[in-house]
């Protein structure tokens, strides 16, 4: 009998040559890590881009990444693909930790066949997604690909389908984050669109279904890559991406910060953080809102910052539909999602894009057990032919649906005005808001008092021919209408508002209300709530 091992306490480094099989394994593994060679890696870096493994190393905690399927190769035998023996097939997959918490990752490697997606490439991604869903940990995809691998024909298209199916399967179960770090064209663009959050980097990220050449051939329009599918059009016009970074390093920092607000999965709560900011901290500056004309503009960010722990606010979709502001804050150390009208843009009115933006965020919060704070200061839905023909009825209904569907703790604070259908849509009591507060300055009505008076008393106003007296009469009637029909006291009388609160006490009141709702559970809640793109 051969004794393989001595006493383990006597283990020490061996001076003997490594076995041949081990040498071969180490060589193959090292070759796989080199990617497509120094020339292609240099070309990648010359574009100001990191390699796939460098990106992962920068994103995750030090020495936490475990790679899997690094030796997988394409089974394609056409056009010399098989003979190239590309280890990993153009994508790196594995598991790592971010701030000590497990995540699943895949990073496309543009140095290998342009990061193109073949069937083996797709199955690697699908496998890591399956494992993430089973382990209930977030999925992060780093996209840098020329699109479908034409050498593999329809197999590459089927590969996209494999990934899309997993995106939908994971929706509302684990957070999904997409980071665009190069081209993401054609069918490849739909996978990020199915995820919860998309990051782009200014100057190197491009997403589009058809490139500039195809656009010109089809329509005659001449457009460059940045104007067609760069970070600016997608963050400001299309709303496809939620975050824009100045560099890859800045992008990864933002991804890490976003994850600090998210739970690992739909069965957990977001991470709790300690704070030295007192829960009962007074906010006297908010009393200024009671002095402001409802038509005057101000940035809602100033209210959000002062309510939040340590004045911190992580905004989402900052450059898109600015009339509604969304993002994360902490109150008493606990994560809260914020949806707020922004009077500094379109007077805080709701339009098609703002409705979509807020509705999808609310549905994400509802899927992942994150309480919702709504700050209301809106004159209603944005009027106009463009909005009506753009489908404001259809888009506005999404917001109504999202609020009514949400079973998470919901607290609403009316700051100055809440008129018409927008009052109902913005977390009203009738849509099952848990606590609905208002400042003493709040106006809650079918429409603004002045506009209502001009309609209701049009004949009496026309009879007064003196312009000065007419204006005085209008002011008198507006005051009377406001006191009777637009007062927060009237709303409190009929139960539309739970409590009128001191502005300086808003932070303390809201934190206390969320404490009461901490154990809120809906017995009829579906075990899974997908976050469909809106």
Chain-wise SSE layout:
Elements lengths: L19 H14 L4 H9 L5 H8 L6 E3 L22 E8 L2 E8 L10 H17 L3 E7 L8 H17 L5 E10 L4 H4 L3 E5 L4 E3 L3 H8 L5 H5 L1 H6 L6 E3 L2 H12 L41 H7 L6 E3 L7 E8 L2 E8 L10 H16 L4 E7 L6 H6 L1 H14 L4 E10 H6 L9 E4 L4 E3 L3 H8 L1 H6 L3 H19 L2 H6 L5 E2 L5 H11 L18
Parallel strand pairs: 3-4, 4-5, 5-6, 5-7, 6-8, 11-12, 12-13, 13-14, 13-15, 14-16
Antiparallel strand pairs: 1-2, 2-3, 9-10, 10-11
Helix pairs in contact: 4-5, 12-14, 16-18
Characterise the protein shown here.
- The protein has helices at about 20-35, 40-45, 50-60, 120-135, 155-170, 190-195, 210-220, 225-230, 230-235, 250-260, 300-305, 350-365, 385-390, 390-405, 420-425, 450-455, 460-465, 465-485, 490-495, 505-515; strands at about 65-70, 90-100, 100-110, 140-145, 175-185, 195-200, 205-210, 245, 315, 325-330, 335-340, 370-380, 410-420, 435-440, 445, 500.
- It contains 20 helices and 16 strands.
- The strands form two sheets. Strands 1, 2, 3, 4, 5, 6, 7 and 8 form an eight-stranded mixed beta sheet that branches. Strands 9, 10, 11, 12, 13, 14, 15 and 16 form an eight-stranded mixed beta sheet that branches.
- It is elongated, with a radius of gyration of 28 Å.
- It is α/β, with parallel strands linked by helices.
- The protein has two domains: about 40-260, 2-enoyl-CoA Hydratase, Chain A, domain 1; about 285-450 and about 485-520, 2-enoyl-CoA Hydratase, Chain A, domain 1 (Alpha-Beta Complex), CATH 3.90.226.
- The termini are far apart.
- Helix 16 (about 450-455) packs across helix 18 (about 465-485).
- Strand 13, helix 15 and strand 14 form a beta-alpha-beta unit.
